[in-house]
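Budget justification, computational time. The allocation requested in the original proposal was used primarily to generate C-alpha cells for proteins on the priority list. As evidence of use, we reproduce two of the resulting records. The first is shown immediately below.
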Amino acid sequence: MTRVVQSIMLIGLVFILGAAGCNKGSVPIKSDTSTIDLSDDLSKYRPRYEAPQNTVSDGSNQIEQNRALEVTSDLSEKLNVALDTVAARNDSLGFVQGYSILVYSGSSRTTADRTRNRLFDIVDPDDIQRLDYDLPNWFVRVGQFYEQIEAQALYLKIIEYYPTSTIVPQKFPLRK
C-alpha cells in the first residue's frame, strides 16, 4: 500500500513541477524589436588609426606605395638539404601513405568478384580495382590517391551505386 501512495505522490510532484515550469515568467517570450532604440553613438569606442607615412593622396583615394622586401636570410640551401633527406627517407621506406576507396569488405569471394566486375562499368579503366584477401575478408578497393580530397570525385560516382563505400587510408608501394 505504501508503494502505491509513494508512486501517486511522485507522479503528483512531477505534475506540479511541470506545471510550475510552464508559467509565464519561466518561458521566454519574443519581444517586439520595434521598441528598441538603436541610435546610440558608438564612434567613441571605435579604434582610430593614423595613415602610414608612405601614402600618396590621389583625390579621395589613398594609394600606398609598394616597397621591395628586403631578405635578410636565405633559407633555400637549408630547405633543399631538408627536402633531399625527406626524399631519401621516403625512398628507403618503399611505401607512400595515401587513400583509396573501399567499396566492398566481406567474407564472400563471389560478392567481391561481382562488385569488382560491376565497377569496371562505373569507373574508368585507368583507376585500378584491386581485389585483396586479408584473412578472413575480401576487399575491393579503387584508386590510389595521395590526398583524401583527390578521391572525392570518384567517390561521388561510386557512392551512387554502393552507398556503403568509404575513403580509407592505405599504404601504396612506390613505383621505381
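The second record produced under the same allocation is shown here.
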Amino acid sequence: MDYSKILQELEEEASLFDLFRLSVAINDELKNTHRIKKIKQSLMIGQKITWFNNGTNKLEEARIRKLNPTRCEITNLLDGENWNILYAAINMDDVDISIHSNQKFGLKKSALRVGDIVSFLDKEHKLQFAKVQKLNPKTAGVITMEGVQWRVHYGALSKNIDIDAEIIKEKELEYKKWLLNNKGLLETTHPDILENVVGDLIEKYK
C-alpha cells in the first residue's frame, strides 16, 4: 500500500468524523482473531523478524521469545531490549513503511523517524541542522551537530537535504520567506513559532 498517497487523500478529503469512523473499523480489524491466527501460525520461537516501532517510526530487527494469544514477546537485536508487541506490528511481507511529504517546510510526525537529519531556524534566526532523537506528540526532540538539544514543533522543521555550507545562507533566506508567507497558517497551528521566530522577521524581510 502507498501510505503517502492514502494519507494525502485523507488530509484533502476526510473530515475528523471520517477519520474517527475509520479508526474504529481499523481497531476492530487489528483485533480480528482470524488475522492474528494466520500470522501466529507462520511464526516460531527464535525466528528473526522486523517490526514497526511507533515510538521511533522505524522498523527494528528482533527475535521471537514467546508467542502469546494476542501479543508476541521479542528481543531487539540492536540493543537487547525486550518488547511485548501486537502481531499486527510485525512486518510479515517486508512492506516499505516510508511516508513521504511533498512539503518543503513544515513536517508531520508521520514523515519523520528517529535518526533523521532535519533543519530549523533557532531563536536567533540561524539555520540549525540536527538529528531527531525523540518523537513527541507536538514536537521533535533533536540534537544539533554541536550537541545542543532542542524541542522543535514539527511545523518548524525541514527534512534535510545536503549539509553544504554554500547553500546554508540560501536555504536560511528561503525558510524565512516561507515562514512569512505562511504567517496566517502558523498563527492558527503554531502561534509559538511566530512568537519565537517570525516576530522581528516581519519587519526585517517584509
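A brief technical remark on that second record: The CA atoms of residues 85 and 149 lie 30 Å apart.
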